[in-house]
Design brief:
It contains 3 helices and 12 strands. By secondary structure, it is mainly beta. The two termini are about 15 Å apart.
């Protein structure tokens, strides 16, 4: 996949969900991972324990699950069991979904059965970051993952062409309908429409979303630890774009 494409994926999912999307969605993320974002690539350096001797554990929470859905700010439309538009020439099977991509490189992201882990006693982590930063031992570009979202199943669909339409259905259970189809056991199967510009990933037990904290610089006042989303309109030579890529999987190579 061209470099600009994975950046578009990250941009769209982040804008929809206000979290960092793993790239590819199958990349493993764990609480306490320490690293940097370099030229769009997450470069893992170690963990809080291996680098600084601080052991972290998940904050105790109730076992609740939720779903996350992103459609590139409404530019991906989902139609149930029907062709779309005059002359669509797209034949769909019962139980299928038709996806209409209103813009090039728009993304449909759907993760079901999600639970989010957070580092317990985060104030200890932030105190360590500040102390190390004050001694010049925590660079401003260094980050630590403090929240990780685990998903029972994740499906991501990206289309490179504007106004393309595709049809999908559950690969293993044709009885599954609606948005549940996107995260059905056995994955999804292409059944019609544009295939050349399509990349699909449907897998279970992933960590497709996470949040990272770093040191946020203030021109007036002390630097502080916080989520990277707190930094807005960063420009100039020191601009940092916090994105994430693991290059072990290429969507273009998927069948």
């Amino acid at each position: 996949m061209p470099n600009g494409r994975y950046r578009k994926y990250i941009e769209h999912v982040r804008a929809d969900l206000a979290m960092e999307p793993s790239w590819p969605p199958s990349a493993d993320r764990q609480l306490g991972d320490v690293g940097v974002f370099r030229k769009g690539h997450f470069e893992r350096k170690g963990t809080l324990e291996t680098l600084f001797g601080l052991t972290v554990k998940p904050r105790p929470v109730k076992n609740r699950a939720t779903d996350y859905h992103g459609d590139s700010k409404g530019t991906v439309r989902v139609h149930h069991n029907s062709a779309i538009g005059a002359g669509a020439a797209l034949v769909t099977a019962d139980g299928s979904l038709v996806l209409e991509f209103g813009k090039a490189d728009s993304v449909l992201f759907h993760a079901a059965g999600c639970r989010t882990e957070e580092i317990d006693r985060i104030e200890i982590v932030e105190k360590l970051m500040k102390e190390l930063h004050g001694k010049g031992e925590w660079p401003r570009k260094q980050v630590v993952i403090t929240e990780v979202t685990h998903a029972r199943r994740t499906t991501a669909v990206m289309c490179s062409k504007r106004n393309d339409r595709i049809a999908l259905r559950a690969a293993a259970d044709p009885g599954v309908t609606g948005l549940d189809l996107l995260t059905a056991a056995g994955g999804v199967q292409w059944t019609g429409g544009s295939a050349a510009s399509l990349q699909v990933l449907s897998e279970g037990r992933l960590t497709p979303l996470y949040k990272a904290r770093g040191m946020i610089r203030h021109l007036f006042g002390a630097d502080e630890a916080g989520f990277l989303d707190d930094v807005e309109d960063v420009e100039g030579d020191d601009a940092e774009w916090y994105v994430d890529e693991v290059s072990s999987l290429d969507f273009d190579a998927l069948p």
